[in-house]
């Protein structure tokens, strides 16, 4: 039997009982017409998920949404059936995040998915009661988002990316690709604690590798213009790029000026950055969807441990390497998880 608009559970159940005359038929019926993918929504409730981001944009890219939807689906939640997603992106303007977070709270969303440290902090400042699942956040303890990784407490949990470990490894990988490099420009957002938490570790790595690091505030178009001008004047030889707006512009500028570049996200390599080293991003979003599924079924975010990445990926753009006139060592090519040609 197929349900159509206007049917009610009671009316259909009554019909089944009257026709079959046995209560067991009703039990069979209720299981047979259960929502797909094991969804537990006997009351027909539609859940609202708020998506808060600084850079991802709305509509959300498929590389984010596909694994995220899969994580939700595995717990019985399907967009368009029992899930609605409310997307808010600050479009690279950090100052807009608090207003968007407050808007999601006013919409009474059931859970907020916060992408990145600035978004997670804005969400936490906006609500102490709505569960928040953070994705791609560096050092959530130092950022004040959770009490501890094992027992987050409060209304925030999710996934960390361990930037304090990633940044030194990225610098080491850059040096391996271009051994002659001794001056590296670090392009970052100094207001983002997720990007400053690795300062000690990356400075120590630079000293061991014989590299002089120069930090540049590259948050806005104007600050990025100043970065380019100063980097050329200082004769910087390579760029280490934290997650920032206008990465495609940074990649093109690096190619034009024959500067090798390394970042942390695979999409930045597709935009022209030479290499990236970081956690499997698709898995982060997949697990974020799974976390939300658990919370919608009753789990408390404060009881769900913050996950740390277990798999890291090296992606190399061979087209960019060719444009730079750079020969990537065979040792790096063999270690690469993906080569863009």
Folded structure, characterized:
The chain has 341 residues and is an alpha/beta fold. It folds into two domains: 47-161 and 281-311, 3-Layer(aba) Sandwich (Rossmann fold), CATH 3.40.50; 163-279 and 313-340, Rossmann fold, CATH 3.40.50.2300. It is built from 14 helices and twelve strands. The strands form two sheets. It has a seven-stranded mixed β-sheet, sandwiched between helices. The protein is elongated and about 60 Å long. It starts with 8 loop residues before the first helix and ends with a strand. Residues 1-21 and 23-42 have low confidence and may be disordered.
Summarize the structure.
The protein contains 14 helices and twelve strands. With 341 residues, the protein is an alpha/beta fold.
Structural class: alpha/beta
Shape: elongated
Which H/E pattern describes the elements?
HHEHEHEHEEHEHHEHEHEHEHEHHE
What is the arithmetic mean of pLDDT? Answer: 87
Terminal CA distance: 52 Å
Contiguous low-pLDDT stretches (5 residues minimum) are 1-21, 23-42
What proportion strand? 15-25%
Helix proportion of residues, in percent? Answer: 40-55%
The tally of structural domains comes to 2
Write down the Rg. 24 Å
If strands are numbered along the chain, what order do they take across the biggest sheet? Answer: 7-6-8-9-10-11-12
Largest sheet: 7 strands, mixed
| Number of extended strands | 12
Our count of helices gives: 14
Strand-helix topology:
Elements (H helix, E strand, L loop, with lengths): L8 H12 L2 H10 L14 E7 L8 H12 L9 E7 L7 H10 L4 E5 L1 H10 L5 E6 L18 E5 L2 H15 L5 E6 L4 H4 L2 H11 L2 E6 L3 H13 L4 E4 L5 H10 L4 E3 L2 H5 L4 E5 L1 H16 L15 E6 H7 L5 H6 L2 E3 L1
Parallel strand pairs: 1-2, 1-3, 3-4, 4-5, 6-7, 6-8, 8-9, 9-10, 11-12
Antiparallel strand pairs: 10-11
């Amino acid at each position: 039997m197929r349900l159509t608009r206007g049917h009610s559970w009671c009316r259909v159940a009554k019909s089944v009982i009257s026709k079959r005359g046995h209560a067991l038929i009703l039990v069979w019926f209720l299981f047979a017409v259960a929502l797909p993918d094991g969804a537990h929504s006997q009351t027909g409730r539609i859940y609202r998920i708020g998506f808060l981001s600084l850079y991802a944009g709305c509509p959300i890219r498929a590389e984010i949404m596909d694994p995220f939807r899969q994580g939700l689906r595995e717990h019985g939640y399907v967009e368009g059936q029992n899930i609605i997603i409310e997307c808010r992106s600050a479009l690279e303007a950090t100052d807009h995040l608090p207003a968007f977070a407050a808007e999601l709270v006013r919409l009474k969303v059931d859970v907020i998915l916060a992408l990145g440290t600035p978004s997670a902090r804005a969400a936490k400042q906006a609500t102490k009661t709505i569960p928040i699942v953070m994705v791609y956040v560096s050092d959530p303890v130092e950022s004040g988002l959770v009490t501890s990784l094992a027992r987050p407490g409060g209304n925030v949990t999710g996934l960390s990316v361990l930037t304090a470990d990633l940044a030194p490894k990225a610098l080491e990988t850059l040096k391996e690709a271009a051994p002659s490099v001794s001056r590296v420009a670090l392009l970052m957002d100094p207001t983002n604690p997720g990007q400053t938490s690795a300062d000690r570790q990356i400075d120590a790595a630079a000293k061991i590798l014989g590299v002089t690091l120069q930090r540049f505030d590259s948050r806005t178009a104007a600050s990025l213009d100043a970065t380019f001008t100063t980097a050329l004047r200082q004769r910087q030889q390579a760029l280490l790029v934290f997650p920032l707006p206008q990465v495609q512009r940074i990649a093109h500028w690096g190619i034009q000026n024959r500067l090798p570049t390394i970042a942390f996200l695979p999409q930045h390599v597709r935009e022209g950055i030479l290499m990236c080293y970081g956690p499997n991003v698709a898995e982060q979003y997949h697990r974020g969807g799974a976390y939300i599924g658990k919370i919608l079924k009753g789990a408390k975010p404060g009881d769900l441990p913050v996950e740390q990445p277990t798999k890291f990926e090296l992606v190399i753009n061979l087209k960019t390497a060719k444009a730079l006139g750079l020969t990537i060592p065979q040792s790096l090519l063999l270690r690469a998880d993906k080569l863009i040609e």
